[in-house]
Design goal:
The complex is a heterodimer of chains A (about 150) and B (about 500). With about 150 residues, chain A is mainly alpha-helical. Helix content of chain A is about 70%, strand content about 0%. The termini of chain A are far apart. The mean pLDDT of chain A is about 90. Chain B has a two-stranded antiparallel ribbon with strand order 1-2. By secondary structure, chain B is mainly alpha-helical. Classes of the chains: A mainly alpha (about 150), B mainly alpha (about 500).
Chain lengths: ~150, ~500
Amino acid sequence: MRGQRRCDIAAGAFIALLGAVVIVAASQIRGDVEERLPPRTLPYVVGLMTLAGGLGLAVKSFRFHGEDPSVQWPEKDGWIRIGVNLLLLALFTALMDPLGMPIATGLYVAGAIRYMDRRRVLTALLTGAGSAAVVYYLFIRLLGLTFPLGPLGP
Amino acid sequence: MLFSWDLLLTGFADALSWSNLFWALVGCLVGTLIGVLPGIGPSAGIAILLPMTTMIPPTSGIIMMAAIYYGAMYGGSTTAIVVNIPGEASSVPTAIDGYEMAKQGRAGAALGISAISSFVAGTLGLVGLTFFAPLLANFALAFGPPEYFALMFMGLSLVISLSGRALLKGMIATSIGLLASLIGQNPLTGAARLTFGVVDLMAGLNFISIIIGLFAVSEVMINVERAATHIYATKIRGWMPTWAEIRQCTGTMIRSSGIGFFLGLLPGCAPAVTTFIAYDVEKRFSKHPERFGKGAIEGVAAPEGANNATSSGGFVPLFAFGLPTGPALAVLMGGLMMYGLQPGPMLFQTNPKFVWAVIASMYIGNVILLVLNLPLVGFWARIALIPFPVLGPLIILCSVIGAYSIRFMLFDVWVALLFGGIGYLMRKLHFPIAPLVLATVLAQMLETSLQQSLLISQGSWLIFFNRPIAGFFMALALASIARGIWLQVRSHAPEIAIDDADE
């Protein structure tokens, strides 16, 4: 799906669906309807705005028949690179609690640099170790931010 | 609170003592560092350092705290311009054009104009604080919930209009921003909304995580996709703005100072709001509005000026009424009280020497910040020379630290990641990001002021039209909406144009 028109129709339909879900969810919010502004009112209004905006975009794009520019989606290699980087980031986030922020940081930074440039093994290791040290000494020790410490904790 | 030249000059004499100069310098350095570092904003920075100031005299302590506050405002733009990470919502408009300039190899010029505009606006704001504080403080008191609601509503409608011909996409982005901030508990009643039974969602989505995801994470994804060797494809050209560019931005700096200062007087009117409004006003004033969003230097000068003028403006209600206009000033007020000083009208009568020394020190602090920041421009701009395979993971690391340290919840990091994906898709499909950000930032204030207004009016919506200030803002907002609808009806183009509406 490279054409802007078809992408906009799909995006509009998805957003309209999101608006419909919000309207249904808003109808289930409990609250006193006698209040000046019942708790469900704003979610309703915003849900309606989303639904109307999504439908408007889909319909406008559907009726458009001019020159259709293409959306610059990545090639297959690009998708793989994004996927692997997102996976590394998700792993970093998931490992932050069990391994602690400094160790997870070191592993993530070293791993991500190594993946993006296979020649930079030493740079990856040194930057990973340096980042872990900065997180530990600057953010945790000096600034006192309460990051998870994992095995480095007391 | 009365102005007197004698008191001001005595204040300068105190502020220029070696000890106070030293602590102002320390505050400026620490503040700049706080602004640059992810995960630690001015409020947290002041709060962390507050207990340490007990070792120094009260005047020096407050001079240092104030310097941290406005120093952080200077530093906050650096990451927004160089690597597209706006650590605060107020830096978002700066990132729009600043990062575009950086991509054109002009990070130095963007950082330079940011420092100069911050200096000019900060100093003009201080002139306002020095000479007109009592008068202006009364203006701030004229703002009640209906005026706030109308102001926020106007801000939102103006920002949707920034979407150019892609108004439907701007409206959708606004809706998504509002939806994101409605998730969680109702601020007045505590009722759960749109949480779908997920416990983590009860605390709501923090807007800083959303901003970090939309800007920084999605930017890294774009660069990863194209296997970038460097974050900018172009070479760095010029470390400083030219004289012609500085002259070109003179009007911008003065206008944004006015906007930032007057809106900064209003409690709760955060720099996030004033910077967006200053950006929008500048785009409307510009003879070449089509350059905005594509690296217009005025697009950097306007929000940076407004940001610093807002900081100066915030001191007016703080000193005059003991009313902090934002979280950082609330912490600073805590510092004043820690020293046994009660901010308010009596402060000027009981401790004039102290107040005027602090005000005078701010003028000096602004000069210190300019002298500190201009030579550092080259250093920050060189960050772009780091190869992307190394810089990319470090940007992500800063983003994770920034998102996590807001509430120390892993959930916030996942939110940043999710919005990174949303931001990536929005960029690909040409959805404007600014309306989403502003809606997220404004939503809670908008809702609270709406509820309070309807309580005051016993349910009548006319309250937004029959009070002069509220009515004025509502009229502007409605005019902006009507113009948008008119453009939409006339336009037969596809929804892809983001910044060319005013061609």
